[in-house]
Input
Amino acid sequence: EAKGRRRNPLHDFKKTGELMLIKVNKTLEVKTKLLNTTEQCAKRCSRNKGLSFTCKAFAYDRVTKRCHWLSFNSLTNGVRKKQDHAFDLYEKKDYVRNCITGKGADYKGTISVTKSGIQCQAWNSMIPHEH
Output
């Protein structure tokens, strides 16, 4: 990237417009704060700044300019999706995508079996197949 230009923190998130996540499981954590931009919300979520949990997503209320940091995402058990015109949902791509980047060491997706149901081989293993 160009020298002196900052990377947009929203690049690490998948946006779904007009959607909010509702926690059914009461142990899941949420923190909210007034912030002017989604970029500020994304930066805090990426750094987990001021949060007592790992931020996996955030929802931005465009009307009140309030950021809702979430310890969960749309794939988490105990979570319900709710259509809401005031909100945009931003989920960390690392937690919702099922693709592999690089050697896969940082993979955080949900797929751990093949299409036929066989358990996946660990990335650091050469058994039963070499890479």
